[in-house]
Amino acid sequence: MTGNHKNTSITRRRALAVSGGTVAAGGLAVAGFQSAFADTTDTSADADATASASSTSSECMTLMSSVTEGPYYLDGALVRKDITEGKAGVPLTLRLTVVDATDGCTPVKGAAVEIWHCDAWGYYSGYTTANPGGSAPAESEEGDSANDNTYLRGYQIANGNGVVKFETIFPGWYTPRTCHIHVKVHTGGEKEDGTYEGGKVNYTGQLFFADDIAEEIFTLEPYSKHTGDYTVLADDMVYDGGGAASGLLTLKAVHKKDPSKGYKGFLTLGIDPDAENTGAGSGGGGTPPSGAPSGSASPSASASS
Description:
- This protein is α+β, with helices and mostly antiparallel strands.
- The protein has helices at residues 12-20, 33-36, 43-54, 211-217; strands spanning 23-24, 59-60, 91-100, 106-107, 112-116, 153-157, 163-169, 180-192, 195-208, 250-253, 263-271.
- The strands form three sheets. Strands 3, 4, 7, 10 and 11 form a five-stranded mixed beta sheet that branches. It has a four-stranded antiparallel beta sheet with strand order 6-5-8-9, with no helix packed on it.
- Strand 3 (91-100) and strand 4 form a beta hairpin.
- The two termini are 33 Å apart.
């Protein structure tokens, strides 16, 4: 389930990844829990996380499995930490660490991580009339102030430890997919007019949630208004059962006895910065919505860090 790599030259880093499978983490590796949750704006926390990672010996994960970008991708997402735009749902703080899996899991500083996902009822911005399957209210009935072309989409730029942070909500679901978040990792571009331009895509993937947590969330408002047959991980057309290397998030409840308080999710994304991915990976992504998108994401909206 690897992506289409346009760069066919074999570098020393790529040779290590191919021959070694997993590589021992170097002194700057940040695959651990602490560095994954270091605040992207807290330099002292970043330093502590790096020091902690340097003092321990762990294994670097293999390259992430690239899969399809799916039918709901839009160009022009905003560079911002909070992508909710007022969308209702269980809070989710997502912290991702981008590392070079072909070079001892060193952080990929400046990598642009892009995510997008559906709302609590299974609707994507830009495609708000596409039926999510089962029985759900129309997206317009949610009554929020979100921009129908931009909600639940965004970029963040990795700090010196390769860490990005997003504030969002727990995604809902749509037929025939399990609960998931789409992700791309870009390098070589730059922030421009509130979005990210240029460079190349190194990795296209999806992030997944344990069935028991997702199913508990879906009993809560507003998720419970979307009823029907939910697809579990084992039956999903994209998730291949590979755990973290296939995008399975580690989740920590903010309040163990009250899931409505939210979750923190983290994952280390092991990429090859020399590779280029087309987004046409394996796995499918569900039936594309009928008709054209309701609009294109526009960087003209106000961006935030």
